Amino acid sequence: MPPPAMTRHRSPARCRSAAKLGRLARRAVFAMGRVGASYSNTSGDYAIAFSTAPRDQPLIPDGEINPLFAAVMDAVEEALLNSLFTAATTTGVGGHTSHAVPHGTVIRRLAAAGRLPAQA
After folding, report:
1. How far is CA 54 from CA 14, 22, 42, 45, 58, in A?
2. Residues near 100 by Cβ (< 8 Å), separated by ≥ 6?
3. Residues 21-33: tens digit of each pLDDT
4. What global pTM score does this model have?
């Protein structure tokens, strides 16, 4: 018999909760596409979702989950862009160098393409 931590006692509510977390995690991968992820063979794109809510807290009804989907996509998109714009040039194993994103160039190109809001 497996130890107590390994036993599988699943109530329908807990399974629905896992399904909802999976749906939220998939939205994170969609957000990667919004910032240009290529999803190539070796890209390793994945997301993990977990809950810190107390077990006795009621689940969010399916009809009210859309704001969470939007929040996940916005948060992941912002995190990815922040990581790009705060990264420094680094040199790693074998002398391979990854260069920092040139902020000025990106801003100029975005402005030229009309993708930045008008400056007040």
Report:
1. 12, 18, 37, 29, 9
2. 87, 88, 89
3. 999 999 988 898 8
4. 0.69
